[in-house]
Amino acid sequence: MTDVLKSSAVELDDFDGVVRLHWPRVFRFALASLRDRDAAETVTQDCFLKAYRGKDGFRGESSVITWLLQIAVNLIRDHARNRRLQFWKRNRTADFDFDGASNEIVNRDESPESRTLAKQQLEAIWRASENLPERQRTVFLLRFVEDLDLLEIAAATGMKEGTVKIHLHRALQTVRARMENLR
Amino acid sequence: MNQHLSSEQISKWMSGDRTPQEEQHVRACPECSAEVVRLEATLQLFRGSVRRLSEQQRGIAPQTLRQALPARSPTVWRLRWALAVAALLIAVAIPLYKGAKNEQRQREMAKADAALLEQIDAEVSRAVPAPMEPLISLVAWDSTNTRGGVEKR
Predict the structure, then answer these.
(1) C-alpha dihedral over A154, A138, A147, A6, to 10 degrees?
(2) Quick check: is B52 in a domain?
(3) What is the pLDDT of residues A145-172, one digit of tens each?
(4) For the segment B58-103, what is each residue's pLDDT rounded down to a tens digit?
(5) Which among A20, A31, A169 has the least Cβ separation from residue B15?
(6) In terms of pTM, does the model score above 0.90?
(7) B95 burial class (0-12, 13-18, 19+ CB within 10 angstroms)?
(8) Taking all residues of chain B, what is their mean pLDDT, rounded to a whole number?
(9) How many Cβ pairs within 8 Å bridge chains A and B?
(10) How many structural domains is chain B composed of?
(11) Residue B103, in any domain of the structure
């Protein structure tokens, strides 16, 4: 057993430690994917419950966070499918507001024009990523929010590395096109 | 490579798909370099905004699995028990109510049958039909008179 696999197995022995360490990250990914706080909370809870029940089956082929994100990806996909059927709940995503967060992030030392442009571009990325096809969005968020490399994304999504590249490339093209419209 | 990177090449670059020639070009070309830096900075902003938003929305992160899982409040449990008891009562009450109603209907039918039988008995035991009963007394008085009259003649 390699050192990485050993450390993953040891990490899972202290499952409370896994919750403490990885809960925020899984929640963040779920929130960015679903744009709904309650749904993200539910998916995160289900993710950790599923992981706890299946921890004996964890073979340590990836890191614990990649394994958790893999579970989360599947749960998010199921949740999104169910939501598509529950058409009356669609409007809930509309109340997701990131204005406050973007205000805090955009550099205040810049000129008002630069700040406005940065905020507009940020909004363009948010909107574009929201409308991406499911796989492209997943890959895009795992790469640019969770900072996973291509192999880790492949492990989390069950895709081949080449497929991940294609989805990421397409997602970036869409996002950039949206940003270009602002210029 | 003297030409600027195309939009597609820049997207590929950002997704980690880059050739040594493209890398060399981006290092040497201020325009392409600025484009890549600008895009990276915007994506960095996006990452930061998602993280900030997640911190705002998350609340306090759970420290244990038990804390992480949804706790069912006593109110929910009480409501569940109340619903279970109500369902049980309904399940028991419906057959009892139906049985009582059937019994009452059978009693009423028996009463109606008895009344009908009494009426039939009364009808059968009469010497003449009810409308002719007043005539019986008349016929009885007149016949003795008539018989007497005939005898007198």
Answers:
(1) -50
(2) yes
(3) 999 999 999 999 999 999 999 999 999 9
(4) 777 777 777 777 665 667 778 888 899 999 999 999 989 999 999 9
(5) A169
(6) no
(7) exposed
(8) 81
(9) 113
(10) 2
(11) yes
Compute the distance between CA of residue B150 and CA of residue B153 in angstroms, rounded to an integer: 5
Domain containing residue A140: CATH number: 1.10.10.10
Which tokens in the block code for residue B43? 């994506």
Helix (H, G, I), strand (E, B) or coil at B72: coil
Inter-chain CB proximity B55 and A24 less than 8 Å: yes
Q: Which of B10, B63, B69 sits opposite A20 (nearest CB)?
A: B63
Domain end position, chosen among A69, A96, A123:
A96
- Residue A4: count of CB within 10 angstroms of its CB: 12
SS3 content of chain A, % helix, strand, coil (to 5): 80, 0, 20
Structural domain including A20 reads 1-96
Q: Which residues contact B122 (CB under 8 A, 6 or more apart)?
A: none
**How many structural domains is chain A composed of?**
2
Domain annotation covers residue B53: yes
* A98 vs B12, B14, B53: nearest CB: B53
- Tell me the per-residue pLDDT of A3-50, one tens digit each, with 9 for 90 and over: 555 566 667 778 888 898 899 999 999 999 998 888 999 999 999 999
By C-alpha distance, the chain B residue nearest A129 is B46
Same domain, A103 and A169: yes
Tell me which residue in A31, A40, A106 faces B45 most closely, judged by beta carbons.
A106
Nearest CA in chain A to B66: A16
CB contact under 8 A, A144 and B46: yes
Site from A144, A174, A178 to mutate, B interface, most B CB atoms within 10 angstroms: A144
